Amino acid sequence: MTEKKPIFRVVDEFVFKQIDNLKNSQPYSDAMRQLNSLPDFQLKLVNQISTLVLVSVPLIIFIVLVIININFNSSLQMKRDLLAEINNHSAAQKQLQSLGRNIISGAALATKGAFSRQVVNSISTSGGNKADIRILDFESKPKDGIVKASGVVRFSKLSTKVLSSFLADLVDRNKFRVSNLLIKKNIKDNTVNGQVELQHYGRAPEAQK
């Protein structure tokens, strides 16, 4: 496998090769003859200028290459940072969408009737009776295509098993959120009474199109 030469060594070899080619050229020989005919002080001045130029050229090339390398690395790092930001934003957006699907229901409960039907359906699924619950308060607030429905449900004479299943069904299947829960146990018949404050977020009909 061929070993790569350092870039500055390549530059130096190129410069010295060009200098050798220049020395071997006819115009250079003619110019040297004319220079040799100059007075000593003029010849000394020309030699100093030539030396300065020969020393400066590699230095200038070196500085230019360093600047190019710095700009390239800076641009590359900027692209990497930008790509990292894009990836982070994409990951955050996916996480937010996933979280939204877990919190926001596909259909909004914009009316008290729709809210009541969902609650009644949950109590029936849990083995309770719709006569055991009552909707006390209801409020619906649409904003940015999302409808926030809030309501207070009073329950009575529920077994702890039915209540647990009722709340689980509301949260897991119907995507309600329990913001407050008050329970009072009736020791005589081993049932519970109380009320639960529920919130539900759903997409407005126009937002689903």
Gist of the model:
The protein has helices at residues 7-23, 26-36, 40-103, 112-125, 160-172, and strands spanning 104-105, 133-143, 146-158, 176-186, 191-203. The protein is α+β, with helices and mostly antiparallel strands and 209 residues long.
Please give a handful of descriptors for the protein shown.
five-stranded mixed β-sheet, alpha+beta, 209 residues
Topology:
Elements: H1 7-23, H2 26-36, H3 40-103, E1 104-105, H4 112-125, E2 133-143, E3 146-158, H5 160-172, E4 176-186, E5 191-203
Parallel strand pairs: 1-5
Antiparallel strand pairs: 2-3, 3-5, 4-5
Give an overview in words.
The chain has 209 residues and is of the alpha+beta class. Helices cover 57% and strands 24% of the residues. The chain is built from 5 helices and 5 strands. Helix 4 crosses helix 5. The protein starts with 6 loop residues before the first helix and ends in a 6-residue tail after the last strand. About 2% of the residues have low confidence.
Contiguous helical run count? 5
Largest sheet: 5 strands, mixed
Based on Cα principal axes, name the global outline.
Answer: rod-shaped
* Helix and strand sequence: HHHEHEEHEE
Indicate the structural class: alpha+beta
